[in-house]
């Protein structure tokens, strides 16, 4: 290992161990009292007047430079501007929201502004030396979720040649929990402390993940957007990308392995957690009392439920022998055994919450061996499980519709010559697709699909050997779906159906572009008016605090047609106070009048009840509308990343006589999922 990398390696170990040690003491049984919830992140230290003045002045100068660059209308400048803006935003929000957690961070902030100003000056001169820099590099992208710039770190190997065509392996490394990991501290770490893993000739991507949320929800999208940005800027071999991490990052590595198994040549999770209920009982000593819907929603991120998907993703787990978080790999090992998969579990001898040096060597050797083969292109045999259309694809199989969400959906399929054989469970609509040349079908022969014991004879592949078919279950028989044109033409007349990225629950609306729409009118009920205003403020404040974004907010009178087309709408208020809600209220499956909220035959007094809901927007059914909610887990759940799962399904009725607290927006008196047609589920 070159001396420079050795130095980076040692610094990285120190940095990670400091971060993870803090994590060990950040949660535990003392965080099980929902009436005494400590603030995350904690309040920062006081900023001296002279420091504030100096930082403010330098930020103003950097802002002027950024504005001048924006006026250039140059495509290259625009594409690189986030690499400058991340420094401005990091320091600005630290000042604005009191998020300097140590006096040492003042000098860090000054250095970051100076770096941003230097990059801005270079960009104004038509230069961008950091784009051809090896070693540690921090870059940024603009997120589609809320239009904020978000940072990510890279380790570019010394041997990377910016001028040839060679593609490189890329390892994603997910960081551990860090309650003071502000943008300032993240960028500083990624500029100074190296990479915890340094495989030879490998680009290492360190996503920020929008703070400390275990890379879930918007943190999950951050990873995908940061990877996309990296792939646009560097030559990444798509068949040589790995999902890796330790502690909270290990939880992320499990999650990305089971949800996106066809994207990685390998996964390497270490410690962390892999599901919610058993981990919280074991690690947090927490007594859980979930309702039926919350228990169902554990299926969103519980990796044990998706264990069979690892047949498509070679996995090397790591745990310290004495680490309490060894539990994560242990429960995955049990889940995998039920699928006849033996987990490769490397255990660091007599080791607590760290990676043993000998184990590290073994892990790197095994990953290097797997990298020789890379990601399988299109395996002939697949087995895929999901509980939601959010995660609906593996290689040549795409699930378009389930019979019932949050119940296991499973498909087992294989190809034999010109035959596709499949068995399914809880699936009503699917697509088989083989890109050109990916599989050697006989070009002049039909393709037989044997699915659930039923045989369909279909036209053979195209002359480039591509082949695609979509099958739907109708009257318990699989039939070939109409063409895409016919499907689109009939969509207007057809009932709504849950589909990928339009399947709920409420939290899903905050994984894509969204706009908060504030009411300009007045509710006839003061209780509702005050509650909706408070919940709107809570949603905006906590979006920034926990997901490090700036919610886009408009009034109901200012909302544009372009925003309706491009974004999910988050409406606060009731039909009397919010003009947009008034426009669509009669098209929602739950009716809300000045007198009552009607859920089928059940009615709730509108003077002290409110409706929370997600539904395809009647003004644009390709996007969501959400009523009166931000993401649904609250301050109590920030205390442990395994708690950060959806707390509400597709709709809920809230009794406002019980005030909102750290766990709920009020007393939930009724709640449920909509059915697969986005209608009220029939009473059981």
From TrEMBL:
GO terms for molecular function: serine-type peptidase activity. Keywords: Coiled coil, Signal. InterPro entries: AB_hydrolase_fold, Peptidase_S9_cat, Plant_Biomass_Hydrol_Est. One of its GO terms (biological process) is proteolysis. Residues 52-79 form a coiled coil. Residues 222-364 form the Peptidase S9 prolyl oligopeptidase catalytic domain. Residues 1-26 form the signal peptide. This is Prolyl oligopeptidase family protein. It comes from Polystyrenella longa.
């Amino acid at each position: 290992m070159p001396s420079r990398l050795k130095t980076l390696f040692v610094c990285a170990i120190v940095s990670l161990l400091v971060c993870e040690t803090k994590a060990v003491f950040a949660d535990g049984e003392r965080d099980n009292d929902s009436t005494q919830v400590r603030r995350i992140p904690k309040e920062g230290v006081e900023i001296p007047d002279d420091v504030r003045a100096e930082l403010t002045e330098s930020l103003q100068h950097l802002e002027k430079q950024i504005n001048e660059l924006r006026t250039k209308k140059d495509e290259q400048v625009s594409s690189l501007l986030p690499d400058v803006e991340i420094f401005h935003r990091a320091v600005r929000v630290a000042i604005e929201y009191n998020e300097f957690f140590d006096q040492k961070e003042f000098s860090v902030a000054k250095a970051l502004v100076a770096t941003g100003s230097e990059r801005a000056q270079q960009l104004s001169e038509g230069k961008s030396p950091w784009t051809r820099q090896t070693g540690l590099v921090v870059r940024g992208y603009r997120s589609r979720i809320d239009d904020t710039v978000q940072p990510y770190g890279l380790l570019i190997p010394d041997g990377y040649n910016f001028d040839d065509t060679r593609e490189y392996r890329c390892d994603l490394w997910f960081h551990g929990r860090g309650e003071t990991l502000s943008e300032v501290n993240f960028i500083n770490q990624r500029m100074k402390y190296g990479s915890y893993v340094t495989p030879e000739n490998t680009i290492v991507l360190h996503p920020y993940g929008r703070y400390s949320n275990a890379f879930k929800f918007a943190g999950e999208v951050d990873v995908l957007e940061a990877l996309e940005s990296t792939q646009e800027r560097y030559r990444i071999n798509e068949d040589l990308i790995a999902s890796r991490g330790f502690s909270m990052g290990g939880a992320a590595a499990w999650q990305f392995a089971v949800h996106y198994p066809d994207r990685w040549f390998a996964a390497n999770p270490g410690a962390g957690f892999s599901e919610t209920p058993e981990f919280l009982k074991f690690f947090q000593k927490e007594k859980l009392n979930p309702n039926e819907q919350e228990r169902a929603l554990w299926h969103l991120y519980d990796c044990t439920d998706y264990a069979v998907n690892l047949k498509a993703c070679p996995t090397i787990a790591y745990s310290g022998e004495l680490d309490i978080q060894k539990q994560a790999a242990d429960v995955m090992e049990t889940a995998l055994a039920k699928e006849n998969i033996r987990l490769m579990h490397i255990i660091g001898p007599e080791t607590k919450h760290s990676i043993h040096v000998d184990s590290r060597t073994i892990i790197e050797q095994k990953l290097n061996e797997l990298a020789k083969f890379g990601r399988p292109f299109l395996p002939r045999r697949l087995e895929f499980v999901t509980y939601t259309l959010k995660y609906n694809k593996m290689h040549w199989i795409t699930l378009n519709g389930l019979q019932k969400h949050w119940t296991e959906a499973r498909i087992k399929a294989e190809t034999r010559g010109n035959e596709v054989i499949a068995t399914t469970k809880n699936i009503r609509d699917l697509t088989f697709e083989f890109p050109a040349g990916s599989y050697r079908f006989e070009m002049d022969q039909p393709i037989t699909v044997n699915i659930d014991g039923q045989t369909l004879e279909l036209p053979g592949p195209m002359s480039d050997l591509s082949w695609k078919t979509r099958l739907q279950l109708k009257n318990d028989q699989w039939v070939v779906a109409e063409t895409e044109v016919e499907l689109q033409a009939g969509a207007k007349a057809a009932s709504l159906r849950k589909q990928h990225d339009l399947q709920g629950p409420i939290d899903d609306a905050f994984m894509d572009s969204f706009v908060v729409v504030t009411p300009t009118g007045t509710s006839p009920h003061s209780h509702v008016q005050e509650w909706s205003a408070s919940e709107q403020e809570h949603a905006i404040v906590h979006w920034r605090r926990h997901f490090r974004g700036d919610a886009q907010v408009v009034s109901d009178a200012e909302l544009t047609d372009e925003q309706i087309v491009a974004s999910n709408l988050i409406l606060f208020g009731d039909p009397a106070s919010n003009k947009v809600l008034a426009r669509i209220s009669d098209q929602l499956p739950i009716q809300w009048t000045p007198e009552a909220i009607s859920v089928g035959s059940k009615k709730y007094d509108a003077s002290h009840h409110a409706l929370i809901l997600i539904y395809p927007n009647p003004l644009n059914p390709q996007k969501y509308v959400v009523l009166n909610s931000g993401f649904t887990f609250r301050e109590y759940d920030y205390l442990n990343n395994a708690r950060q799962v959806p707390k509400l399904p597709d709709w809920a009725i809230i009794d406002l006589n019980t005030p909102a607290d750290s766990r709920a927006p009020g007393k939930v008196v009724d709640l449920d999922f909509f059915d697969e047609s986005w209608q009220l589920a029939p009473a059981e």
